[in-house]
Amino acid sequence: MSEPGTPPWWRSAVIYQVYIRSFADGNGDGVGDIAGVRSRLPYLASLGVDAVWINPWYASPQADHGYDVADYRAIDPLFGTVAEAEEFIAEAHAHGIRVIPDLVPNHTSDRHVWFRAALAAGPGSRERERYVFRAGRGPGGHLPPNNWVSEFGGPAWTRLPDGDWYLHLFAPEQPDLNWDHPDVHAEFEDILRFWFARGVDGFRIDVAHGLVKQAGLPDVPPRPDTPAEGPRTHVDHPHWDRDEVHDIYRAWRKVADEFEGDRCFVAEAWADTPERLAAYVREDALHTAFNFDFLMASWEAQELRGVIDDSLAMLGAVGAPATWVLSNHDVVRHPSRYGRSAARRWVAGQRYEPGGPVDLELGTRRARAAALLTLALPGGVYVYQGEELGLPEVEDLPEEVRQDPIWERSGHTDAGRDGCRVPIPWSGRRPPFGFGPDGATPWLPQPADWGRFSVEAQSGEPDSVLELYRAALRLRRAHPALGDGTLTWLETPPGVLAFRREPGFVCVVNLSGVPYELPEHVRVLLGSGAVEDGRVGVDQAVWLDV
After folding, report:
1. From first to last of its 546 residues, what are the pLDDT tens digits of the chain?
2. Omega before 432 cis (within 30°)?
3. Residues 143 and 136: beta-carbon distance below 8 Å
4. How far is it, in rounded angstroms, from Cα 516 to Cα 510?
5. Residues 219, 257, 258, 463: which is the catalytic one?
6. Of 31, 96, 30, residue with least CA distance to 60
7. Can you give the pTM of this predicted structure?
């Protein structure tokens, strides 16, 4: 635990997301691994991050790149071994970096020993009670048990030769667990203890708003029309954001509190309203939750301020810090989102639609400003690998190399998430750009011109995105005003955001169409672009010492 009077580390942490397949390849097989991440720990330490969140590294058939777990206590041979994971955790700690692996509790792999036993045991067996098996509807049970659909497209039910249907809210290879069964609760509490004992500092909980299903598994009702403006309202749903899920997390919090060192949980929870999200992070439940409203907001001052205010108010009311994120492994990278004139927020229940050609120069300028805005806000921050390099979405991947199950399940109508998962460039002028040994072919192809984005190319270049992040993270760690705390908005014209944090710090972000004269200040600490004649340019941000 923290020293008395010292806030827990996670309230202000900058956590770097490692999508392990695409970070660094240590053995030359084209896929990132634990050895690769270990080799880059000095880079992460010099960048100035406090922790790494690692996407699933458990034993898995990789139907959904690790989110289909066959054994939660084993590392997939593609990535390494449990012994290597323990060595990595210890080495990361030596660098001052904490480690937060993913946990996938909504579903397992269809290769998990429990599911294989359920298939073998047959209808009505005790083995099937750990999952969601049901008889079908209609004559002969030939229709699915209800109208639920998979997040990856198509029905959420698959029928077995013996007549039973099983639920999978994602791919058919990811059967949903039955969280009404005591075995499931006991198993996951034991999994938590297994990894906490090996030194992990917390867990990111995948689909934290899932797990619990409404009794009787009723049909999903039609979603009411959502007004484009005005407050959102909560809509009761039979398998998302059920109130009963919080009982699970209260039990997990007790498990975490058994261990020293401020262990923490972060929820990947999609909720209709900030109030519903705040329920996940009460004092006796999880510690933090991803702020998807901020990620989904358009590049528009009024909308961003509204999201910031709502987040701080609702999370602050339950004593939880806000977290801020611009990109992750499931969404289009933000320089490409911000580089479109039609870059509006997502519509509930739908994936992001690009909306016209991308202006990468515009998107990068806005992304640089967004970085300074995000790192200046109260609370914690998540940085997705390659974000600090200004990487754009790869939108022209050939159809034959796409691997995201969304691509196949949608009948090749939704490109899926491969474009934000392309292996990142480290050095050199041609693929694999230092991702792995020369001659190794990355699991997804890198654009031929990505050498300009590499760590090697940007290091020491004062105007690069990488050096902006390095400078911002140094200042964030050193300045007493930054991290957890509060902010005070300053009066500005439409299109400009400015707030003060004590002691003596002001952040100004210009989202208007004209340069904005800076308020009185002692000096400029950092800018996303050049400050000329005392004014911050369009789509730029500045940190001020006041």
Report:
1. 456 668 999 999 999 999 999 999 999 999 999 999 999 999 999 999 999 999 999 999 999 999 999 999 999 999 999 999 999 999 999 999 999 999 999 999 999 999 999 999 999 999 999 999 999 999 999 999 999 999 998 999 999 999 999 999 999 999 999 999 999 999 999 999 999 999 999 999 999 999 999 999 999 998 776 555 556 678 899 999 999 999 999 999 999 999 999 999 999 999 988 899 999 999 999 999 998 899 999 999 999 999 999 999 999 999 999 999 999 999 999 999 999 875 544 433 444 555 678 999 999 999 999 999 999 999 999 999 999 999 999 999 999 999 998 898 788 988 899 999 999 999 999 999 999 998 899 999 999 999 999 999 999 999 999 999 999 999 999 999 999 999 999 999 999 999 999 999 999 999 999 999 999 999 999 999 999 999 999 999 999 999
2. yes
3. yes
4. 7
5. 258
6. 31
7. 0.95
Q: What is the rounded distance in angstroms from the CA atom of residue 351 to the CA atom of residue 330?
A: 10
Spatial distance between the Cα atoms of 37 and 5, rounded to a whole number of angstroms: 34
Mention every residue, 6+ apart, whose C-beta is less than 8 A from residue 72. Answer: 58, 103, 191, 194
Whether 244 is catalytic is: no
Q: Give the pair of three-digit tokens for residue 455.
A: 């760590």
Residues 6+ apart with CB under 8 A from 113: 70, 71
Contact 230, 261 (CB under 8 A): no
Q: Phi/psi of residue 139, each to 5°?
A: -55, 125
Look up 187 and say whether it is catalytic: no
Exactly one of 68, 201, 206, 272 is catalytic; name it.
Answer: 206
Q: In what side-by-side order are the strands of the sheet with 14-18?
A: 288-289, 264-267, 202-205, 98-103, 51-54, 14-18, 380-384, 323-325
Closest CA to 205 of 53, 391, 68: 53
Which one, of 185, 8, 214, 7, lies nearest residue 105 by Cα?
Answer: 185
Joined tokens for residue 407: 């691509």
Q: Give yes or no for a contact between 179 and 238, defined as CB atoms under 8 angstroms apart.
A: no
